[in-house]
Amino acid sequence: MPSTPATIQEHDISDLIDRVTSEKDRVIVVRDGKEVAALVPLEDLETLEELDDLLEQAEADAALKEAQEKGTITLEEVKAGLGL
């Protein structure tokens, strides 16, 4: 995957955006020798967001299942257990 320094000129940013949008390239932005960001096609970002939503839903489903199987406790019970 190509990379570019964080200190680039405005016309270089425009060229990078053109590459990302037309060629579907992903470009890593490097600052002080560290990869700190990426320019990606919007479709890639949308896919990542969809995957994140699916993972969050799976985690919520698992937590609900665990609560149903193991039961829950009230806020008052939590406070009492903490001596509050």
Structure description:
This protein has helices at residues 10-23, 42-70, 75-81; strands spanning 3-5, 27-31, 34-39. The protein is α+β, with helices and mostly antiparallel strands and 84 residues long. It folds into two domains: 1-40, YefM-like fold (3-Layer(aba) Sandwich), CATH 3.40.1620; 42-84. The protein has a three-stranded mixed β-sheet.
Which features characterize this protein?
single chain; 84 residues; YefM-like fold; 2 domains; 3-stranded mixed β-sheet; 3 strands
Short description:
Helix content is 60%, strand content 17%.
Task: Give the secondary structure arrangement, pairings included.
Layout: E1 3-5, H1 10-23, E2 27-31, E3 34-39, H2 42-70, H3 75-81
Parallel strand pairs: 1-2
Antiparallel strand pairs: 2-3
Structural class: alpha+beta
As a whole number of angstroms, the C-alpha radius of gyration is 23 Å
Average of per-residue pLDDT values: 89
- What is the ordering of alpha helices and beta strands? EHEEHH
Strands, count: 3
Task: Profile the largest sheet.
Answer: 3 strands, mixed
**Number of alpha- plus pi-helical segments:** 3
How do the strands of the widest beta sheet line up side by side? Answer: 1-2-3
- Cα distance, first to last residue? 54 Å
Poorly predicted regions are none
From the spread of the alpha carbons, the general shape counts as elongated
Strand content: 15-25%
Share of helical residues: 55-70%
Number of domains: 2
